[in-house]
Each structure stands twice: as C-alpha cells, then as structure tokens.
Amino acid sequence: MADPLGVAGTAQRFVASMRPNDFPRFTVDFDLADLTLGNTVVAEVRALTAGLLAIGSLVGVVVVGALATASVTERRREIAVRKALGATSVGIGARFVGEAAFIGVVGSSVGVYVGQAMILIAASVRDGQPLLDSSIVWFAMAQGMAASVLGAALPALRAARLDPAETLSRA
After folding, report:
1. CA distance 68 to 100
2. What angle do CA 21, 25, 29 make, to 5 degrees?
3. Which residues of the chain have pLDDT under 70?
4. Are 140 and 108 in contact (CB under 8 A)?
5. Which of 33, 98, 134, 165 counts the most CB atoms within 10 A of its CB?
6. Does residue 157 contact residue 96 with C-beta atoms inside 8 Å?
7. pTM score > 0.90 for this model?
8. How far apart are the first and last CA of the chain?
9. Which tens digit of pLDDT belongs to each residue from 21-59?
10. What is the CB neighbour count within 10 angstroms for residue 115?
11. Exposure string for 28-46, b = 16+ CB within 10 A, e = fewer
C-alpha cells in the first residue's frame, strides 16, 4: 500500500532519531473538583433511579390492586360457592395473593428482558460495553412480586371475609 504523503517514512525517521534522554518528562495533573463533580453526578443519577423505582412500584401496587379488586368482584359467586363447600378464608385469600405474585413475577420478567434488550441496543448503537448486573435482575423481580402481593392484599382480605349465604342470596 502506497503512502502518498510519506507519513510512515517521516514517523520512522523521527522515532529513529530520538534517544531515550530526548523524551520530555510527563506529569499528570488533575483537579479534585472534577472528581467531586463526577461523584455528584453519579449520586444524582442513583437518586433519580431510586425515585423512578419508587414511582414504578407505587404504580404497580395500584394497578395490581385494581385488577385484584375487579377479579374479586367478578368472582364473588365462585368464592361464595367455594366457601359454602368448605374452603377456608385463608385458602381463598392465599389464592388471590398467589395469583398476584404470579402476575408480579411474569410482569417483572418481561420488564427485565425488555430492559436488557434496551441496554444491549443502546450499547451497540454507541459502540459501548453493556453493563448487566444479575443482582439487579433478581432485585427487580423480587420488587415486582412484592408490589403485586402488596397490591392484592386488601382485595384478598375482602374475598376471604365474603359471606357465602349473603352473596348467593343476592345472585
């Protein structure tokens, strides 16, 4: 391959003409204010992330609570028949909490995979290295399940307290 500008030859002649004592001594100076600014930015990003997590969890609790309330309302007859046939209040409540926990795990799993896909896409667009931490994945899944169980607790309690005679007489 030709070097029309002669850059390679010039660089070789320059390096060959240098002696070890000819190199200047280098020093690296930095301002501590730069490190403080970087730490401040990292702290603010973490605080923002924690705030978004709290808002997302609150929304999850409200949405799952609304879904569980609708489910209890629609299944009043079923709950009354099960209680009339001998199902315990604990069993009825546990069923609704279990359903909510399942919804939380599935929803969190989908969210984790979508989030990881977005991280990989962003890293490939920017030619960067994606940072995927498995502890965050498990935390997100546990958080989603906890928010779902918390949201379903009140509707499950209502379902467990349902009087079968009164419910079946209204229907």
Report:
1. 7
2. 175
3. 1-35, 37-38, 171
4. yes
5. 98
6. no
7. no
8. 90
9. 655 555 556 666 666 766 788 788 888 988 888 898 899
10. 14
11. eeeeeeeeeeeeeeeeeee
